[in-house]
Design a protein that fits this description.
about 550 residues; about 35% helix; Bact_solute-bd_prot1; Extracellular solute-binding protein; signal; TAT_signal; transport
């Protein structure tokens, strides 16, 4: 999902859910015909068709080194619920594939980067056989640095680009500046790198830019990453039933709210409302379109979109929403402390907070229990959910890189994509035992040095298939995977699911104001009629022309949403 977008969490939460030890929830498939020109032969806008893409894609060879406790189902991550036994860790990379070369990597980093040559970097480079040199950049301003570097002639060997930074001229720069990895990975060639061969095909399809396989992906489950999280302990104590429709939620909310006692039912529930009413995904522009009876319809044009906003507005009007949310701070400030204090009982946020809230309260508040509600259909029936994209962060290799550098980069990726339960996974995600982490009763815990050194670095190059593993709270891991499986059973793929689409620049900012208008409507500052007028204006200012452009794209390339 796209962090900080209308239907997404923060960048930091996204990373926690995809790149950290929790390993993976967040967001194509056709893939690139020439809808725009480019001197390097790649399309500058458009996508690549499913049939053309097949010859570009790596062969899929499922890994057999480790068997998960809970296999993937309905698009879910795989799950591990058993304790970690370091003596039983498997080896997925039996020999070093790196040839000892030097590779420079520019990547976003949140926090204070560790010193060069630290014990983690040394251990990883020795394991891989490559001298990786990190050029870490502030993740909060990464888009600015990225634009400047890609506009220059000094591009590092590897550049990591999160999906939320693929705006403006960045997509065209990706096509013009980065190498075609197809000769090394397409078809059976990928079998030289078994951990890369085990990455799901959807994630590779998402890595095709300008008609070439250019990206190394961080795979994600396509099931929505936004969960209605609730205080299960308080629900049980007070006898509240978990809602199964929008009416039931409103009934619960009115019963639970007592402003004098500083308790409200919820925060801003807009994201869950969109899911409950079956609104198309808003976490990427192309996912907002779907073909209905031969016509492309955008999410903002649907009755479901307006109905979701109206229901959320009624929650605010009923006074059941925490005051912080009414002031517009609902999903910006950290909700943890007030949630732990019981000031509100439900909020929708990134999937990763299910575990992180459990972990942070385990010692200081033993009775605290957070759980995820199943998303309900607004009328009490089964929900209609829409898939998010199967990869959201990519690493690219400089187009001027030599074959030896490309091979060394792939050697790095083959280690970082190792599955949970392997020595390579532990090295990538935890560092060196004793220095960066210890293990007690099957639960690894980072040391102070581990929290300094082992941060978001190597995990950004490539990752294994979506995985959820919490040895400290195995019941949460099981709960998360089973939630994904249940929600995945109700998840559909919209027409442009998984497509790596570059819209023409003239329409890039067409929908920018809708998130703010949504928030104004649900807080009563604007009316539904204002939204209807905004949609009408959107159509006349380019929305209808953009629809025609997408329709042409669909006619020429087909859909990969099976």
């Amino acid at each position: 999902m796209t962090p900080n977008a209308a239907s997404g969490p923060s960048r930091r939460n996204f990373l926690a859910s995809t790149a950290a030890v929790t390993a993976a929830v967040a967001g194509g498939v056709p893939l690139l015909s020439a809808c725009g020109g480019g001197s390097d032969g790649g399309s500058r806008d458009g996508t690549t068709s499913g049939k053309d893409a097949k010859e570009l894609l790596p062969a899929y060879v499922a890994g057999n080194v480790v068997t998960p406790d809970i296999p993937s189902k309905n698009g879910s991550a795989v799950g591990f619920t058993s304790k970690l036994d370091l003596a039983d860790l498997k080896t997925s990379v039996p020999k070093k594939l790196g040839k000892g070369g030097k590779v420079t990597v520019m990547s976003p980093f949140w926090g204070s980067p560790p010193k060069d040559g630290n014990a983690y970097y040394k251990a990883m480079n020795d394991l891989i056989g490559v001298d990786v040199v990190w050029q870490n950049q502030d993740g909060n301003t990464y888009d600015q640095k990225l634009g400047a570097v890609l506009a220059s002639s000094e591009v590092p060997d590897v550049v990591v680009v999160p999906g939320w930074n693929m705006t403006g001229k960045i997509p065209s720069a990706i096509i013009g500046k980065f190498a075609d990895l197809g000769p090394y990975l397409s078809g059976d060639a990928v079998k030289e790198y078994p951990n890369l061969a085990a990455i799901p095909t959807d994630a590779w399809q998402r890595s095709i830019f300008g008609g070439k396989l250019r990206g190394l992906p961080m795979p994600a489950s396509y099931v929505t990453g936004i969960v209605p999280l609730y205080r299960q302990d308080i629900f049980e104590k007070e006898g509240y039933e978990v809602p199964r429709s929008c009416d039931e939620f409103m009934t619960f909310a009115k019963e639970a709210t007592n402003a004098k006692a500083k308790r409200w039912a919820c925060l801003d529930m807009k994201w869950t409302a969109f899911n409950a009413f079956g609104v198309l995904s808003g976490n990427e522009k192309s996912l907002g379109w779907n073909e209905v009876d031969g016509k492309l319809v955008h999410r903002i044009e649907t009755e479901e979109y307006l109905e979701a906003l109206e229901w959320t507005r009624k929650l605010f009007a009923a006074g059941v929403v925490h005051p912080d949310a009414r002031l517009g701070k609902s999903n910006a400030a950290d909700p943890g402390p007030k949630f732990a204090a019981g000031e509100f009982l439900v909020y929708n946020q990134d999937f990763s907070q299910w575990w992180s809230r459990t972990a942070e309260q385990a010692v200081q508040n033993p009775e605290f229990k957070i759980w995820g509600m199943d998303i309900w259909g607004h009328d009490g029936g089964a929900p209609t959910l829409w898939a998010q994209n199967p990869a959201g962060i990519f690493a690219f290799v400089n187009k001027d890189a030599s074959e030896s550098v490309i091979r060394d980069v792939l050697a790095v990726a083959n280690v970082t994509a190792a599955p949970y339960g392997t020595k390579e996974y532990m090295a990538t995600n935890y560092g060196v035992e004793g220095t960066h982490y210890t293990v007690e009763d099957g639960v690894p815990t980072k040391t102070e040095q581990g929290n300094i050194d082992v941060m978001n670095a190597y995990v950004m190059i490539a990752s294994p298939a979506p995985t959820i593993a919490h040895p400290d709270f195995p019941e949460v891991a099981r709960g998360q995977v089973e939630w994904q499986q249940r929600m995945g059973a109700h998840t559909k793929k919209s027409t442009f699911y998984g497509m790596q689409i570059v819209e023409p620049a003239r329409w890039t900012n067409l929908s920018n104001d809708f998130e703010q208008l949504e928030d104004d409507v649900i807080r009563g500052r604007k009316k539904i009629g204002d939204m209807q007028q905004a949609v009408s204006d959107w159509r006349s200012k380019g929305g209808d022309k953009l629809r025609d452009w997408y329709k042409k794209l669909l006619d020429e390339n087909g859909t990969a949403a099976g």
